[in-house]
Amino acid sequence: MNTGHVELARAQQERWQTAYQQQPHLHGTEPSAAARWAAEAFGAAGIDDVLELGAGQGRDAFFLAQQGFSVHATDFSESALDQLRREAQREGLDDRVTAALHDVRDPLPPADATVNAVFANILLNMAFSRAELRSLVGEIHRVLRPGGLFVYAVWSADDPCSGHWQELDDGLSVHDGFAGRFFDEALVHELADRWRVDDTTPYQEGPRRLWRVALAKPNPAS
User: Fold this and answer.
1) What is the tens place of the pLDDT at every residue in 75-126?
2) Element (H, E) at 155
3) For residue 10, which phi and psi values (nearest 5 degrees)?
4) In this structure, are residues 69 and 39 in contact, taking their beta carbons and an 8 Å threshold?
5) What's the start-to-end Cα distance of the chain, in Å?
6) In what helix (H) or strand (E) does residue 202 lie, and over which residues does it extend?
7) CB 4: neighbour CB atoms within 10 A?
């Protein structure tokens, strides 16, 4: 990672930490549409445990736990995870939701082929270089068992608000101190290399336009 990306990553971590400290329900309390769809996909595949990346304050983790899944939630904000742990305890979900601090720019902690499902809502939109995105998706591929599922949602390049963000380099842009990347169809398919593509669907949630993506790690025996 070059110096510019290191500085951007640090600035973004501080920006998110501040936002989570100032707003206990930054993203609301209702689960995302992506989490509702992921629960159906994971359930249909007979999966009962999920690794969530970029879990924030836990609204999707709690929903998945309420649907019967065991969820290991990670985020790079200690403030967000502190709130997640307290809420899990209040809701009686601490037996189904665990949390750990982790920056996904670093290798994922699980060993090879040990995870059944990975879920990430909006995480991939964050301020990653294209090389970092490819590395992250490669790490998810590594930790998933053959046949395991990766379900994610990202803001679409067709989202009207993308025109209000100030362009940076490498396809990134910034607004109100938050940096990120809007996904076009080409990037969705680029990141699906080496995967079996189960779903790539544009959809709308409130005013936002997004992509819903479901990828499966191929089973070499199939």
Assistant:
1) 988 888 988 999 899 999 999 999 999 999 999 999 999 999 999 999 999 8
2) strand 144-155
3) -65, -45
4) yes
5) 37
6) strand 196-205
7) 12
13: CB partners within 8 A, 6+ apart:
76, 77, 103
Q: Is the dihedral of CA 87, 90, 91, 95 positive or negative?
A: positive
Compute the distance between CA of residue 105 and CA of residue 115 in angstroms, rounded to an integer: 18
| Rg of the chain in Å (alpha carbons) | 17
Long-range contacts of range 196-199, CB-CB < 8 Å, 24 or more positions apart?
198/41, 198/149, 199/41
**Distance (Å, rounded) from C-alpha 218 to C-alpha 108?**
20
Give residues with Cβ within 8 angstroms of 63, minimum separation 6: 31, 35, 36, 39
pTM above 0.85, yes or no: yes
Q: In what order do the strands lie in the sheet with 173-175?
A: 166-167, 173-175, 178-180
